[in-house]
Design a protein that fits this description.
This protein is mainly alpha-helical. It is built from three helices and two strands; from the N terminus they run H-H-H-E-E. The protein has a two-stranded antiparallel ribbon with strand order 1-2. A hairpin with a 2-residue loop joins strand 1 and strand 2. The longest helix is centred in the N-terminal third of the chain and has 19 residues.
Length: 97
């Protein structure tokens, strides 16, 4: 039986950037503990002799060969359509803080 403490829920909320009041903390404490108890049942399943299942679709190779398609458009023509160019590359705003 897994019973999460109040501090565990507060830590999860902080990591998720959620602000929870006391009623929500208590509610999530019960709900998440219930979910974890349900998942713990999987550890009781006898898996001896079973091989791991990595995928179930039967596909063996999902990659394809790269094919160059000539569109007869120059790099300069393509870069004319973007808002900002620097050193012949598209300049975008910083994505990672």
């Amino acid at each position: 039986m897994t019973k999460l403490a109040k501090k565990d829920i507060e830590k999860i909320a902080k990591l998720s950037r959620l602000k929870l009041d006391e009623a929500e903390i208590e509610s999530f404490q019960k709900e998440i503990s219930s979910i974890l108890n349900y998942v713990e049942q999987l550890s009781e399943v006898d898996t001896d002799g079973l091989s791991p299942t990595y995928q179930v679709s039967g596909l063996t190779s999902v990659t394809r060969e790269d094919i160059v398609i000539p569109y007869n458009v120059s790099r300069d023509q393509l870069l004319m359509n973007v808002p900002k160019v620097r050193d012949e590359q598209i300049e975008v705003k910083r994505m990672i803080v």
